[in-house]
Amino acid sequence: MKKYLILLALTLSVNPAWADKYADTIKVFKNAGGSAAFFKNSYGYAIFPTIGKAGLGIGAAHGEGRVYEQGTYKGDTSMTQLSIGFQAGGQAFSQVIFFQDKRAFKEFTSGNFEFGAQASAVAITAGAQATASTTGQSAGRSGGKNDATTVGKYNKGMAIFTVAKGGLMYEAAVSGQKFTYKAK
């Protein structure tokens, strides 16, 4: 009986190495082409494993994420977006925002609004998107997390990349995004 109790105690004390949604999403972007180099050269980044979005004339999106400064987890973030325009459907996508320098990092973590205009089309897990906003421009396409490609560059200190996860949505809308940040 004593051997079984010792075995049970050892079994319960061992923590399995579970991959988390943040590590998985970072891996997708590191393997997605253009966004890979940004992990090495940026001051920091915010990673959103899943942002859910839906709309029919008026739309909304929301997602939770984490913020990293020079590779170190610094706090949590959330993104809420409202949009108006020609849009119909729903989608889910992953997003990473890279900060070129400390100034861009501080600007993001202050919680300022960001307004943008975007056009995208997503069908199941194949997607194409283009975004022009006050934080920069980005474009990309994906056929799913295992064969996503990304392209982009810094604009005003930030570069944004997205990978479609699924859904069915067409959108040509004006949107406003609000990011909140809470240090850990």
What would the keywords be for this entry?
Lipocalin; disordered N terminus; 7-stranded antiparallel β-sheet; 20% helix; 4 helices; alpha+beta; globular; 184 residues
Write down the secondary-structure element order: HHHEEHEEEEE
Indicate the radius of gyration in whole angstroms: 19 Å
What form results from the Cα inertia axes?
globular
Structural class: alpha+beta
Residue-averaged pLDDT, rounded?
76
Largest sheet: 7 strands, antiparallel
In the CATH scheme, what's the topology name?
Lipocalin
Number of helices: 4
Description of the molecule:
20% of the residues lie in helices and 60% in strands. The protein has 184 residues and is an alpha+beta fold. It has a single domain, classed as Lipocalin. Strand 5 and strand 6 form a beta hairpin.
